[in-house]
Amino acid sequence: MLAARRTLRLAPLVRRLSSAAEAVSSAAEVSEAQRRCFKAREYQAKLSACPDACKHTFSDQNLALFAAKVFEEARGSAAAAGSGDVSLSFEDYSKVLGKIRQSMPTTCTLTRMALENETDVLHFEKADVNNDGSISRDEFHAYLREIVLQSIHAHQIEADAQRMRECVSKCAISRTPLLEARVQQLVPGINEYGMHGNRVLLFGGARPDKDAVLMRSNDYLQLAGHAAIARAKAEALLHEAPGERRARVFTLDAPDRPRAFERRVAALLGAQDAVLTTSGAHAVRGLLETLCDRRTPIYADRLSWTVGSLRHGLGASGNAFPHNNMDHLRALAAEEPGVIVIDGVYGNGAVGNVRAAAEVARETGSVLVVDETHSFGCAAGGLGLVDELGVADGVHFRCIGLSKAFASRGGLVVGPSRALEAFRFVDRQVM
Q1: Which residue range(s) make up the domain with 72?
Q2: Is 22 exposed, middle or buried (0-12, 13-18, 19+ CB in 10 A)?
């Protein structure tokens, strides 16, 4: 009797668990369908930049048909061999690879060599994303997209170079001495066809693991293509008013979404105020142009983005100190207070010595700016390294690029409200 009662009590729980499992399975199927749809649209978007003939020949629909035909042949071979396996073995893929090479629409020597000199083993390893020793239909379709785009891109580069060679003789305006002198100054060694030694074409390269963090990409958390984020962006564009089409300086008091976003970020970070900018670069550069006149020294970590910006005429005197060397920074700032700029996390993954920099700023009367572009959204808690260390009271300004973990565009400057009010009325890009 007791066992029967327990069974009756457990029955509703089992039913709920079963329903939950079915819901999770259904959600996973929907998510997988959305992922496939997104990948197909992404490929077609990239293909749209290619010649019309390529758009038709190598449309995603045609690639899918080609993949289906290959796997139909593989299924027939497997059935003849008494096997039910319909994935591609290395031998199957080697046979297909010859057909792929012949179909590439390019006469580019570099591309042809890259496709032919890479061994079949390397191609197989690239296509076998989950490293199970065989290639599924999805993996094969994805790799078809990759090599088609690579080949067409090389073909397009060659076509563009030919078009430039034909246009050079006809376009006298490009020979204007003033323009030519400036181009040579900016890109030394550039020839009349626009080719130069500073641009390197790379083919191949290591393929990252499926779950790897792509630090080479701005979207290194891989959120830009997330279905929920894409849907939210689309909904905002379709159903919300864009606001007045005027310079931001004229709409500062408007209770619109940009201002609401600024207030939410300021509250989130426990700061007085925040200003939305056009990019992360604008956030850093615009703030420094606001804070500094030509006599104000800027002390920037040698590995920071700011050091590169200082080389391009920021106007203030820049002093790069050795990476994370707080003793060197202290000596510079003690001699003359200035604006200290460091990164929370640097492009090479190194963590900035924010706590020590804050102490130097306090001791010397300097202003501290921390570029949190790489750390915001990634450090513990997601609010950046300054928040994680609890040193917000010692950091005057935080600059944030929204193109990294935020998977978006734009930037932010976070700091004292009076200084940011000056930024709004002085910064040229806001104006």
Answers
A1: 18-155
A2: exposed
Residue 181 and residue 78 in contact, taking contact as beta carbons nearer than 8 Å: no
Can you give the CATH number for the domain in which 288 is found? 3.40.640.10
Q: What is the value of pTM for the model shown?
A: 0.63
Q: Are residues 149 and 62 located together in one domain of the fold? A: yes
Q: Is 134 left (phi over 0), alpha (psi -120 to 50) or beta?
A: beta
Q: Are 380 and 398 in contact (CB under 8 A)?
A: no
Token duo for residue 281: 């670069």
Alpha carbon distance 341, 395 (integer Å)? 10
Residue 294: what pLDDT?
83
Last residue of a domain, one of 101, 134, 155: 155
Highest mean pLDDT of the ranges 108-117, 128-137, 254-263, 361-370: 361-370
CB 254 within 8 Å of CB 244: yes
What is residue 5's predicted lDDT score, i.e. its pLDDT?
A: 46
Report how far residue 360's alpha carbon sits from residue 358's, in angstroms, rounded to the nearest whole number: 5
| Tokens 């970590």, located at residue | 301
